[in-house]
Amino acid sequence: MDRTSTMQVSQQDFEKAQEQVKLLKKDPGNETKLKLYALFKQVGLTYFPRKPTVSWAASREDNARQKYTELVSSLVSAESADPKTDTSPGESRHGDYETVLVTTKNSITKIMFNRPEKKNAINHKMYREIMKALEEAGKDDSTIAVITGNGDYYSSGNDLNNFANIQPSEMEKMAKDGAVLLKEFVGHFIDFPKPLIAVVNGPAVGICVTLLGLCDIVYASDRATFHSPFSELGQSPEGCSSYLFPKIMGLAKANEILLFNKKLTAAEACAWGLVTEVFPDSTFQKEVWARLEAYASLPKNSLAVSKQLLRSMEKEKLHAVNSKECEVLQERWLSDECINAVVSFFQKKAKL
């Protein structure tokens, strides 16, 4: 096959991808739209063109076309997987959730972040649904609760679209409401009455890293990473990490993570005390769930009482830390420094 025929096939794939974008059932989100737009620009097109005209000669344009096609393919695959209906035999599904999948099996309630097409980024609705799921798990007949992610990511942290399209006149209300929501959200983790186990199946970012200090056990795949880029975004720590991280790993190491945006591998996070144990990704799910099922067979009330003994001495302190962190974050969100950092983040994404 000569280069001309290869180009024709590539052009057909590209045109097919454009049609597939229009048929997506879910909005891919601003971040993905910006990427698609940037790739269109590189091949001389505008977003969602009616009659694309492309010069197929330049390798840069070929590369952009290829990346565009691959990105659309991943979006289509994510929809085709339909993860919301993916439950195993004997697993009962809870409630009417959109952003999380909550199931119970073998005395384990599993709360799964369920926005794989957005790398499980947490938007406002997801915050509220996780709180609801924790409330229900705390009262149901399960022995332990598990938090994990659907897809390749554990969670990419806050959905920065939470900060997008906010009018200047709405900024103060946004910051105040956001701080109230965050305080309540973290409070649910502080007060959770049963053993709470994080099963970190992939990269974790931001608040989903800081909350790990409030979990009782953290198991991670060896492909997981841990990153809290607060300074990069002009923000400050949350999830009680300003208190728990120095206590867990020492002040110097906590500073690298919380001040200077250090990204940890799973092995580093385990060595630093944030992660309990790391497993090979190929056997991660099998090994971890076998262990969790053994834990769930232990006397339920004994586990709950023992957890409360371990946590009771610090619960008041943790709530005070949570309040202070949210107060500082509210100020940060209104600062020019934070606003400029978030704008810069979106601009960088648009250029990818």
Automatic annotation (TrEMBL):
Residues 75-95 are annotated as: Disordered. SUPFAM superfamilies: Acyl-CoA binding protein, ClpP/crotonase. Keywords: Isomerase, Peroxisome. It catalyses: a (3Z)-enoyl-CoA = a 4-saturated (2E)-enoyl-CoA; (3E)-nonenoyl-CoA = (2E)-nonenoyl-CoA; a (3E)-enoyl-CoA = a 4-saturated (2E)-enoyl-CoA. Residues 81-95 have a biased composition (Basic and acidic residues). One of its GO terms (cellular component) is peroxisome. It is found in: Peroxisome. It is an enzyme of class 5 (isomerase). CDD domains: crotonase-like (cd06558). GO terms for molecular function: delta(3)-delta(2)-enoyl-CoA isomerase activity; fatty-acyl-CoA binding. Residues 11-43 form the ACB domain. Pfam families: ACBP, ECH_1. Its main location: other. Its EC number is 5.3.3.8. This is Delta(3)-Delta(2)-enoyl-CoA isomerase.
